[in-house]
Amino acid sequence: MADKPISLQKLVNADKDADTLEQVTSADKYTTVVSRLGRQYPSLAKALQTIIDAGGFKPYSTEAELKASVPVIVPSAAYAFDTKKVWLWNGLAWVDEGTSALDVAKLYTDEIDLISSINRTTENPAEFHNSDLLDSIPLIVANGKILLAINQAGKILNPEPDLIMKKEIQDSSEDFTIKAATATIDLPSAEFHNTGDETIIPLVVSGSSVLVAVNNNGQLVNIPPEPVDYEFHNDAYIPEKEFNETDEQGFILPGGASGALDTSKLPYREKDLEKGNLYITNDVLHVSKDYNNDFYIASVTSTVFSTYAAIYAIIDGWMSQYPDYIYKTLVGNDAWNNPIYKYEFLSPRFVNDGEETTITDGRTRPPRILLNSGTHGVEREAVVSSVMFMNDVVNNWQKSDELAKFRWATDIIFVPIVNPSGYNANTRENANGVDINRDGIAKTQIETNLFLSVLDAYTDVDFCIDHHNSFDLSVSQRPFWVGVEGAEAFVMCRELAYEMSCYIKKEFNMYVGANTPSSKISSHISTSLTKANQTQHGVTAILLETPRQGATNIMSLKNRRIHNQYALFKTMSKVRKFILDKQFKDVLA
Predict the structure, then answer these.
(1) What's the CA gap between 238 and 217, in Å, rounded?
(2) pLDDT tens-digit map of 212-260
(3) Of 457, 463, 495, 302, which is closest to residue 384 (Cα–Cα)?
(4) 3-state secondary structure 158-216
(5) For the chain, what percentages of helix, strand and coil (3-state, to nearest 5) are there?
(6) At what angle do helices 380-395 and 557-588 cross, to 10 degrees?
(7) Residue 348: its pLDDT value, please?
(8) Residue 46: pLDDT above 90?
(9) φ, ψ of residue 157 in degrees (nearest 5)
(10) Among 113, 143, 356, 504, which has the minimal tally of Cβ within 10 Å of its Cβ?
């Protein structure tokens, strides 16, 4: 059968109908479409909005099925039967409208059970009281009201019995909370049980341990069963309670009346304190170090320090721990076959990581300092304090940023004893009766030549420090004394001497009455080792003098060691900065 021809009018009508269909499916939710025959149809979006406005939304069997769907209309609502939740489509994702009716019901039931478990008095060995709330500790709180507390006599208190009701918890605008006790408690009127009840409500907690709880039978449970002998403190417990404001029972008040620690009762100096005591410097709290060890209490005449072999043994011990950091070299033996060693404490170097632009040449080398002591054998304190400083660099570098720089960013060449025969004999001169520090130019002694040869092994030592001890603490020889030559080094040493003068007055209360400095600056002795190092090798060298043993009763042994070690630490810090500043100037020149 032949197809009938389509008239022009039918084609026109079909085109109009297609336009109507397109408008129905794509127009917004406010549009009503009029057809070719004059009939009105809402757009699809408007039809769906009408359904939503009427309170309808699409149901889904599972929440997963709901989340996988993509509604056409924004916003759209849907309900998941498995979780009992209503979800809202915001155009990009489904949004959880919050707690489901099921969750609300569960929370309400749990709160009822919680109160029920506390009110349960099947055996009821705990005695409850409704008075005497003074100094009580809240245990259970709801809506800012105490439902259960414990007083200083250990009695469990029910301050307002009518509050422990379902409606009070239901209407509470705050979470129902259980609070841990924060003070030492005796419980003379409470009977404790060590039963293994699975459901308990913690009352007293220390860390993760529940010390006291209430079980389902209303019994007080001691978990674990050992005696409750813990000491409880308020939030910010500080060991030195005598420096805090406390109540009549001795407990620290939160923040105190003035807000915190009463620093007016703290000492400002560490020198007379035992280990662990608090003191304050520059408004910073510190804890006193342990000074009860050989470095601070052993005499230089004791076996710990009395021979050069004992000194070498201390440093050798570090070297065995850090063989990739400390290196030992025999410089030579004196006329009596006593060895003179140098120890190199070498910081790590930058390494080539494969990049062609990596810089690893001499420009990246850290500052290099030569430190020596024991030039005069009787000045053993200089040797001991130098070893103490190096011990801090090796073993205590984590305690300060400056020590960390000496450990990881400074090379230190250490010659602990220049004059071994004089050190063992506790004499100023060597066994020949020659003062090595007056032989720097004449070079008549083996020790002199061996020490001066140390610099021959290097072309890049930046600074030399020769550590000595002065003989007393008289006006002419102060607790800190530095010898220097050269304009730039003098400026550095002048600042160093002034800072040490301030330190001595502040920390040791010396020369406070008189308006005189407690340090001094001098030039080099023309025949000294420092003079020889500076003139023969062109390396800046300074002389450092600190108090020696037995010279005075003004400073105790411990305080002298504290002072001498700090003096060397301060000098080394200044020298390191001096080297870096000079390198900076050289680069700019």
Answers:
(1) 39
(2) 777 766 667 666 554 444 444 444 444 444 455 555 555 545 554 444 5
(3) 302
(4) CCCHHHCCHHHHHCCCCCCEECCCCCCCCCCCCCEECCCCCCEEEEEEECCEEEEEEEC
(5) 35, 20, 45
(6) 70
(7) 95
(8) no
(9) -110, 140
(10) 356
